[in-house]
Each structure stands twice: as structure tokens, then as C-alpha cells.
Design goal:
Length: 133
């Protein structure tokens, strides 16, 4: 019984990760929405960038980006003084899961919000390459 409890506690510690990026209101301007949605994305090496209180940008690999329109407003998620915490119980994060917003300096819980579907993004062509002078 003791071994099972230690194993479960280890899973919870390993499964809790904090991922933070600086707020970037212009982040989506570099991408086009494709309309292609998925319910889950790989999480272990994902970067999350808050765009605003209703939108997050996920980079799940080199050149592999998704936008997530949250189910409602996520207060202060786009503040430079907070971080996003995600409890993982596997290698991916899915629509409907809850993310927590935590104050960077005090570690105090500020709020939580639910993820929507993940929409694949395509990088816009480089304007300089498209319009050579």
C-alpha cells in the first residue's frame, strides 16, 4: 500500500508543469488560421504564449503551431506577472482541460480557465520574400 501511495505522489509531481511565455498581442499576426481543429496536442515540449485573456498560442514543435480560443475569459493570463500551470496525466493536453493562472512572485492562485479546441496555424509567407525589390 505504501509503495502505491509513493508512486501516485511521484506521478502528481512529475505531471505538474509550469509553462510560461510573455504576453504577445501580435503573435497571431504572423499566422493564418487553417480551420483544421484537433482535440489534443502533444505537451512535453510545448511553449504556450498568451495572446490575450481569451487566446493562447501553442508551439508544439518546430514550425508546428496551434491557437486555442479559451472557453471564456482567463483573467490575467496575459499579464507578464503570471504563469500558466498545467496538470498533465499523459503526454498531451486536450480541449476541456483546466489550466491555472498563478502569480509569478507569490505563487498565489489567480484563476483558472478551460481550453477550447486547438486550431492548426500556418505561417504567413515572409513579406520581404514575397515582394523582392
Amino acid at each position: 500500500m505504501r509503495r502505491a501511495m509513493v508512486g501516485l505522489a511521484g506521478l502528481m509531481i512529475v505531471a505538474t508543469g509550469a509553462f510560461a511565455g510573455s504576453p504577445d498581442e501580435d503573435a497571431l499576426s504572423r499566422f493564418e488560421r487553417t480551420g483544421e481543429t484537433v482535440k489534443c496536442v502533444r505537451m512535453p515540449s510545448t511553449d504556450i504564449t498568451p495572446v490575450d485573456e481569451e487566446t493562447l498560442l501553442f508551439r508544439v514543435g518546430p514550425g508546428d503551431y496551434y491557437v486555442n480560443d479559451l472557453r471564456g475569459t482567463c483573467n490575467d493570463v496575459d499579464s507578464g506577472f503570471t504563469r500558466i500551470e498545467v496538470n498533465l496525466f499523459g503526454s498531451q493536453i486536450c480541449s476541456g482541460e483546466i489550466i491555472k493562472v498563478v502569480d509569478q512572485s507569490s505563487g498565489m492562485f489567480k484563476g483558472a480557465c478551460s481550453l477550447g479546441d486547438f486550431e492548426r496555424l500556418r505561417k504567413k509567407p515572409d513579406e520581404d520574400a514575397a515582394n523582392p525589390e
